[in-house]
Amino acid sequence: MNQPLTSARRAADVVELKIPSKAEWVAVARLAVAAVANRLNFSIEDIEDVKLAVAEACTNCIQHAHGSDQIEITCETEPDALTVRVRDDGRAARPEAVNAEKTDEARVGGLGVFLIRSLMDSVEYDVHPERGTNLVMTKKVVS
Amino acid sequence: MDIKVNVRESQGDTYVVDLNGEIDVYTSPKVKDAIGDLIDKGHYNLVINLEKVRYIDSTGLGVLIGGLKRVREHGGTVNLVCTNPQIKKIFDITGLVKIFGIYDDEDAAMKALV
To answer: What's this model's pTM, rounded to 2 decimal places?
Structure first.
């Protein structure tokens, strides 16, 4: 059983999705999460941000997690925020990439993490060499 | 989800790559191959038209950066055509607006090559 993503459990609704860890399934994940985000009062621009952040997270799982067959995507919706967890159970090939906070540091390989950090309001990475990567990111609804 | 790639010769030794669709981890190899083929054949001045691209992620950006690096080694360049605000925002956030010439229409992108 997964732990709740957010500490404040104010009637949060949860949507879970598992995709094969393959490039052709990333579009399904980003469109599904965009549909979830569409249930909240996000602007179209914010929904696009969430869509891209989820796609980048899935892409990182596919490109950098060795030995993982599945990616788990969990969305937790609250009236004023969407929290998305993207998790794989592979061995992280480039754990240092998650610290990329500037474009020069990111280079091409870490550009995805840089974009996630830029587009979402909060991002927490837990990279474990054996257990895999657990990324929790939140986007707040701007009223 | 797919990307359509159309390559056409324009004035001088300039080539235009029209992209239509979504560029992500699944579709970007097709774009990479098209740009790579042009460069392999010695064409180093390219306009990549993103007007019909609805979505691009970091793998798509990586392909464009890779193409630009390769043509610059031969004194060429890559100009982009893009007016989609969401896509322009991605170029802005990543600082790529300073690396690529980004134009509102193909004529302007073409003139800037010469």
So the answer is: 0.88
C-alpha to C-alpha distance for A65 and A132, rounded to whole angstroms: 7
Chain B residues whose C-beta sits inside 8 Å of any chain A C-beta: 1, 22, 24-26, 55, 57-59, 61-62, 65-66, 85-86, 89-90, 93-95
Structure tokens given for A33: 């999460």
Q: Is A32 on the interface with B (CB under 8 A)?
A: no
List C-alpha distances in Å: B48 to A54, A79, A141, B39, B88: 26, 41, 35, 13, 14
The CATH architecture of the domain made up of B3-111 is 2-Layer Sandwich (3.30)
Contact criterion met (CB < 8 Å) for A115 and B58: yes
Cβ-Cβ contacts under 8 Å, B55 against chain A: 51-52
Domain ranges of chain A: 13-140
Domain boundaries, chain B: 3-111
Tokens read off for A98: 């998650």
Q: Reply yes or no on whether the pLDDT at A32 is more than 50.
A: yes
CA of A80 vs chain B CAs: smallest distance (Å): 23
- Give residue B11's pLDDT band: very low, low, confident or very high (50, 70, 90): confident
CATH 3.30.565.10 fits A13-140, yes or no: yes
ipTM of the complex: 0.91
